[in-house]
């Protein structure tokens, strides 16, 4: 991908995020298309693509704030976004625990009763745990990850600005590796030994945060580096592109021939299924994802230049948070009203999906209309002369001849300041 353009948004990324939102909606709504369109590109779901693209946008947009304004402004922008995501999560929790719970339990809807199993047993603990991001019921377990990742991102970017992205990605990769061997449970047990947690481990969400942070850091790094006009485009050697094509085609064919579970649970190779695990981002799943990322970066710009722009997908991606929340509301309403049935007539399923897509598009249009009064900063990066390099975001402050030396600000101390050239 080339460096970030002067415009505030990247329509290709918005269109891709819109596609991921539609795929997630199809996956979560109980229809005949749920299984065929779940993980359509191999052993990779829309969730991985959505998280990676969202992290890419966060790194590019909020990194631009640091370059043009200040690191403090970047921190505030991340925190404001985290607060907004948390508010959406809290609203969804209250909707689930009030409207959905009241109707679902009253009519004894199995899909809802199973979803709210812990809440039915311990309602006050579930509510408090949900607001504290400890209890994460199914379907509502991805926004807490976003909140935590958004809170951690500005500190990660500051470290990357000073020391570079290599140590950041090395540590993140090590954490992902440890997560494959039970880091999440070990951290829970250690915390529980210090402060007894009222929420059981199996109710803390299906997504393993220590694994998914690597995907977020990868996208954050890719997006943040696009703000430097001198940054080279992502390029891969020919052999890696050919290998990515072979892997992507093989795994996609395997998924559609065998199913979403690579090996039969009772077969001799069932022990390899965790290598494709979605919740912990198993190693072979990551390999599949990397192959698709290589192909998207290599062929994406040429494909986007030749294909007509899908502005309806861009609209969905531009309002990704409200659309994501709306899709969860739709799924919960369908579950409480129709249950988790996958054998309805095709006409009903098509009508349900068409109506759902219409609602999501209306939510996106309404959101963008409301946000016109608060446009994002679209100031383009400073134009550099040919051959001129932008100074690092953090650089030693120039010494002041008039100022006396001191232990805090003397010439022997390195002081980090934001470069005046933005």
From TrEMBL:
Keyword Heme belongs to the record: no
Residue stretches of biased makeup (Basic residues): 412-422
Top-level lineage group: Bacteria
Annotated coiled-coil segments of the chain: none
Location of the region described as Disordered in the Swiss-Prot/TrEMBL record: 379-422
Keywords: Membrane, Transmembrane, Transmembrane helix
Pfam families for the chain: OpgC_C
Record bears the keyword Transmembrane: yes
TM spans (from-to): 41-62, 83-107, 168-187, 207-224, 236-254, 279-300, 321-340, 346-364
Protein name, UniProt field: OpgC protein
């Amino acid at each position: 991908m080339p460096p970030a353009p002067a415009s505030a948004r990247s329509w290709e990324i918005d269109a891709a995020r819109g596609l991921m939102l539609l795929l997630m909606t199809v996956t979560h709504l109980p229809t005949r298309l749920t299984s065929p369109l779940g993980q359509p590109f191999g052993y990779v779901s829309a969730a991985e693509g959505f998280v990676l693209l969202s992290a890419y946008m966060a790194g590019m947009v909020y990194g631009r704030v640091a370059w043009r304004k200040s690191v403090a402004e970047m921190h505030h922008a991340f925190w404001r976004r985290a607060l907004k995501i948390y508010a959406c999560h809290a609203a969804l929790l209250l909707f689930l625990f009030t409207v959905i719970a009241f109707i679902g339990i009253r009519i004894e809807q199995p899909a809802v009763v199973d979803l709210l199993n812990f809440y039915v047993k311990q309602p006050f603990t579930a509510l408090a745990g949900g607001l504290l991001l400890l209890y994460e019921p199914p379907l509502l377990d991805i926004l807490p990850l976003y909140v935590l990742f958004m809170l951690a991102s500005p500190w990660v970017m500051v470290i990357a600005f000073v020391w570079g992205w290599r140590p950041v990605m090395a540590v993140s990769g090590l954490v992902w590796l440890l997560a494959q061997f039970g880091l999440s449970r070990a951290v829970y047990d250690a915390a529980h030994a210090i402060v007894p947690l009222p929420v059981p481990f199996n109710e803390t969400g299906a997504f393993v945060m220590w694994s998914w942070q690597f995907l977020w850091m990868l996208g954050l790094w890719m997006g943040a580096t696009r703000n430097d006009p001198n940054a080279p485009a992502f390029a891969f050697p020919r052999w890696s592109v050919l290998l990515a094509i072979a892997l992507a085609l093989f795994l996609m064919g395997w998924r559609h021939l065998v199913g979403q579970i690579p090996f039969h649970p009772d077969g001799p190779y069932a022990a390899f299924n965790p290598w494709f695990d979605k919740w912990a981002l198993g190693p072979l799943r990551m390999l599949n994802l990397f192959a698709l990322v290589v192909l998207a970066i290599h062929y994406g710009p040429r494909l986007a230049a030749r294909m007509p722009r899908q502005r309806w997908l861009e609209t969905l991606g531009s309002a990704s948070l409200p659309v994501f929340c709306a899709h969860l509301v739709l799924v919960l309403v369908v579950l409480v009203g129709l249950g988790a049935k996958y054998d309805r007539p095709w006409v009903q399923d098509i009508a349900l999906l068409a109506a759902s897509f219409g609602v999501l598009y209306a939510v996106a249009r309404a959101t963008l209309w409301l946000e016109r009064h608060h446009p994002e900063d679209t100031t383009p990066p400073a134009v550099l002369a040919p051959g001129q390099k932008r100074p690092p975001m953090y650089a030693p402050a120039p010494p002041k001849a008039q100022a006396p030396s001191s232990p805090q600000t003397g010439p022997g101390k390195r002081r980090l300041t934001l470069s005046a050239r933005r």
